[in-house]
From TrEMBL:
It comes from Ornithinimicrobium tianjinense. This is Helix-turn-helix domain-containing protein. Coiled coil: none annotated. GO terms for molecular function: DNA binding. Residues 6-56 form the Helix-turn-helix domain. InterPro entries: DNA-bd_dom_put_sf, HTH_17, SinI_DNA-bd.
Amino acid sequence: MATPRFLTLTDVAEVLNVSLSQVKALVRSGDLLGVKLGGRGVWRVEDSELEAYIQRMYAQTRESIRQGATDLD
């Protein structure tokens, strides 16, 4: 089965293992790009945008570790 192009905010929360409110905050801040689709204006995140966000978080983590951050909590 193909991966859907657009994910619900609930699906994104599940992928990232965070709360729905945290995903809404990421979209609201522009850290994670979302789009309102359909007549009811339901928010969705394109799978490529989610992957780009994850890659940015990996890059930020690598930089933090490079600068000496070792706290894994």
